[in-house]
Amino acid sequence: HKMVPAVVTVVATDNVDPSADKRGDFITEIIPGIRIDGNGARDQLHLAYRLAPLVSARQSSKNNLQNALDANGSVEAIEKFLYIDGSANIAQQAISPVGPRPVDATTASSNRTETRAYQLSPYVRGQFGAASDYELRYRYSDLHSSSDAAGNSRVGEITAHVGSAPRVSGLGWRLEANSQTVDSEFQRSTRSDRGRGILIYQIDPQFRVNATL
Question: DSSP label at 19?
Fold first, then answer.
């Protein structure tokens, strides 16, 4: 792993909060972090995290912590059969795309919120026969916001496919199915299901024709 050196920034501003009365202040931003990258025979991991405490010299109510995380990883739990992918992200985002946007992290704004997104996706895949393959995957996503105005949401999705690809030339086929459920805090829950079949005719290595049913 690799530690990221801390960055210290002191900002003098004559308008610390554009939404309030004009007022000067000194904002100190300290950003320590850590980064981890690993690649094994059956697992991979990337993680980058930074923590930015903001300290106001005159208004302690403006003090806050801002997190930034970008992480993803995968593991082959059972060799050539069961796999697990995962990711996590923490970021500062605008609540409303039409609202005022702060110039940088040291500017106070009621239109900024911290979002946390997590995803976990176990799946199985493999082959049968000389040219056939299959995959069954479940994907769960969770999005949280520190602001009540932004809302939270959860998504569950199941995807599956099975098929046989043509070789240099000939006929192949593929069956696909998808089921998704979305649970949102400010909207009614929704579910969608779909499936399709695909016939593939490989005329030559560079040209193929697909027919979807």
Answer: T
Tell which residue, 32, 38, 41, has the closest CA to residue 72.
Answer: 38
Whole-number pLDDT of residue 121: 98
Whose structure tokens read 């911290």?
114
Segments of the chain with pLDDT less than 70:
1-31, 53-64, 95-111, 149-150
Distance between CA atoms of residues 205 and 213, nearest Å:
24
Residues 6+ apart with CB under 8 A from 53: 29, 30, 63, 64, 65, 66
Strands (E), the chain: 2-13, 25-39, 43-56, 64-78, 82-94, 112-128, 132-145, 153-164, 170-184, 190-204, 207-212
Dihedral (Cα; 14, 16, 17, 20), 10-degree rounding = -40
Nearest-angstrom CA–CA distance, 140 and 71: 16
pLDDT of residue 38: 87
Sheet of strand 43-56, all strands in order from the earlier edge strand to the far edge: 2-13, 25-39, 43-56, 64-78, 82-94, 112-128, 132-145, 153-164, 170-184, 190-204, 207-212
